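Action item from last week, closing it out:
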Amino acid sequence: MSARAVAVTGLGLVTPAGVGVTATWRGVLAGTSCAQRDPALAGLPVDFSCRVPGFDAAERLGRRLSWRLDRCAAMALVAAREAVTGAGLDADSWDPVRVGVVLGVGTASMERYEAEFAKLADGRATEISPLAIPRSVPNMVAGEVGLDLRVRGPNLTVSTACASGATALGTARQLLLAGACDVVVAGGSESLCSRIPAACFHQMGALSRRGDDPAGASRPFDADRDGFVLAEGAGVLVLERTEHARARGARIRAHLAGYGASCDAYHFTAPHPEGRGAAEALAAALDDAGTEPEDIGHINAHGTSTVLNDRAEAAALRRVFRRPPPVTAVKGTLGHAAGGAGAIEAACTVLALEDQVVPPTANLRRPDPDLGLDVVGKVPRPVRMAAAVSNAFGFGGQNAVLVFRAVP
């Protein structure tokens, strides 16, 4: 194992497939979509999304805490608690100064802003909540997790659009390798299921328009794909210096062995058509991990289900791999949680390595023959793999790639 690898000792997930790692992984392996009609989007051209079913922050966190939290922060906090508990850690077992928090957020949740804007539009400015800003600014997601865990190390929010969750994990790894922390609670969270994002992404032509079939709308790498489905969710991983995890007898679930980042410098929303920047990030991550392309047994793709993004990602994979390994895209099941997606999918990559199985891509009915990829569909595929890659890309040409290694 490379000296630059860090240990993954805890996972936490809040997704449209359910709250918790077990529920999410079961849903991802089932390969069925979570998309359905969303009453909050009624009357809009796109009125469906992938919401976390029955998520009640007050029920899970208590009213005293949840009243001040934005939905994005509440989901991150639930995921962080699960990850920390699963890692066998608590506030009495660590030096709080040596524990950091790094979370990726794109816009946090727009619902809170929309509610306050409505008051302004109705001439009720004196009714604006004094908590409107503290509840909804992106940095408060990491801030609330740090408060809850009572940790005093670096507390950072990174924002690289839909790559944010993966960028946060890469940044956390860098903190550990630099010796700034022993433990970092890292990941991403987002809630896009509200009216402004739905209307805006529709106007951009980015959303699927299959209103007659929400469950079949997100279909990454399918020849008939027509856009992504709005989603929400959070993914949190506990990362540790490997020697720290071993010294306390922790269960190491996988190693985060490499990280690569790049910028397309091509267009403010569209990816480079040949996947140039994505390929550069992928090559950098493999080099950082000391791994050859042929050592990778699985790609957890960004796989948004848009025509341009899937085409560009496929081109990037073909540039780096002579024959790309089996590919999956969990957005077919979970939708696109933007800033949370990269972390959710990283957690799924760890689970795939643990179970030695590649989950199916929901709604893959007619794989696009022009992409040249082996996309897993319909049922999970057992694969012997020592390492796997998780891709995340975002507006602004942001690219972040993670390489995970299995624990023998």
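Closing note: The first helix runs from residue 21 to 30.
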